[in-house]
Amino acid sequence: MRNLRVVVSYDGTRYYGFQTQPGGNTIQDIIQDTIKKLSGEDVRIIGSGRTDAGVHARGQVFNFHTDAAIPVERWAIALNTRLPSDIVIRCVDEVEPEFHSSYSAKRKTYRYSIDTNKFPDVFERRYRFHHPTPLSVEEMRKGLAFLVGEHDFSSFTSRRSTKTSHVRTVYEARIDASDGKLDLFISGSGFLYNMVRVITGTLLLVGEGKLQAGQVQDILEAQDRSAAGPTAMAYGLNLWEVEYLA
Amino acid sequence: MRNLRVVVSYDGTRYYGFQTQPGGNTIQDIIQDTIKKLSGEDVRIIGSGRTDAGVHARGQVFNFHTDAAIPVERWAIALNTRLPSDIVIRCVDEVEPEFHSSYSAKRKTYRYSIDTNKFPDVFERRYRFHHPTPLSVEEMRKGLAFLVGEHDFSSFTSRRSTKTSHVRTVYEARIDASDGKLDLFISGSGFLYNMVRVITGTLLLVGEGKLQAGQVQDILEAQDRSAAGPTAMAYGLNLWEVEYLA
């Protein structure tokens, strides 16, 4: 059996997240149904991780095993012609049998996008959270800096997290800002459930002046979800890139 | 009566163009209905020009006369809270009684966006025409240069044009290109029906090598629609900006 690694982009607006659910209408369900139509196989695709309902992906990665005779270079076009227009396969490669999209991932990057202009940019309205008052980007950057490195991120994950350890490493984080639009990029070894959205919700309070940048350090040390800010809206979040060892 | 000038952006995907039609579902119909709900007035808004079904606008301009007591700075937010999310008012200003969005316009700019990557960028799929093979941008730029200046653009307008003169002036035109994405910006005194889309359709043939750049000059001189290329798809077109004397 061949093991295929796929990079997929999607507009998550109308889906109940990546991972399969009883009601269907997830990215995984749609892709598995499409593979079935194409090759006749009942495959289970393995995502690099979940994305929540309404969250987008520029570069989600999944892999699956197949006996189909379709040449590797034909898979992307064959899937794209059968997928709805809000799911686009970017590339398909054959990888070693052991490759696993989740276990083999070395680094993930998320982007959270914010529009602080009085009225939203109509062309980005589904992808950029509208916060119609200004934010102090400098204070948000100071607050964000406390999160870089290896920390216990218990304050920044949903109480529903079932992970035994909340220790993760944030390798890099930055906020790009121009024309009232902010893009927070955060890269790490892995992310807890809702982690980027709780970080963003907390930094929004810093940007609004409701929290001091230095309090982000206190929140981190508290290791308590109730110390942090609210969970930012799903639609501003995008799984930007998943990286593997070459 | 006050005369208000409004800059509006819209995603034209689900509308039958800007101008009112018997069946409704045009940008003009939706905005007029919204003004009626807000002020109770039956107004007729005057657009800077039409946009076709499926064409977008970053900066369409219209004006209308009102007796409503609503302060000018309240109009934009009051309209936006009542409009669907794919129509966003950017600003409202009070102008002199003689101002007319169409007659007073000095310069218009359109953008036509193309994605030449093998698979489309899912987040721009409604705004960027997907042409899944490479184009020679240099040849397209050479062809485009022949159109700058005052010319009879009969070859580059729909046969359904009812204008007595097809002479227009293109002030500036350029193609920005990066990562396989092309943005054609074209500014002029005014544009004929389908003019930017026929220019784009012709330049696509040049980019594909099916026409020589120099043949754009011959097409212009022919003053005959059948000499030019096809009309490019509506969804790549965006009315970018309308300018007036200060």
UniProtKB/TrEMBL annotation, chains A, B:
Pfam families referenced in this protein's UniProt entry, alphabetically: PseudoU_synth_1
Q: Which GO terms describe its molecular function?
A: RNA binding; tRNA pseudouridine(38-40) synthase activity
| Bilayer-spanning residue ranges | none
Catalytic reaction(s) noted: uridine(38/39/40) in tRNA = pseudouridine(38/39/40) in tRNA
Enzyme Commission code(s) on record: 5.4.99.12
Q: Name one GO biological process term.
A: tRNA pseudouridine synthesis
Q: Which residues bind substrate?
A: Y110
Q: Report which superkingdom the organism of origin falls in.
A: Bacteria
How does the annotation summarize its subunit structure? Homodimer.
The family this protein is said to belong to: Belongs to the tRNA pseudouridine synthase TruA family.
The protein's name:
tRNA pseudouridine synthase A
Originating species = Paenibacillus nasutitermitis
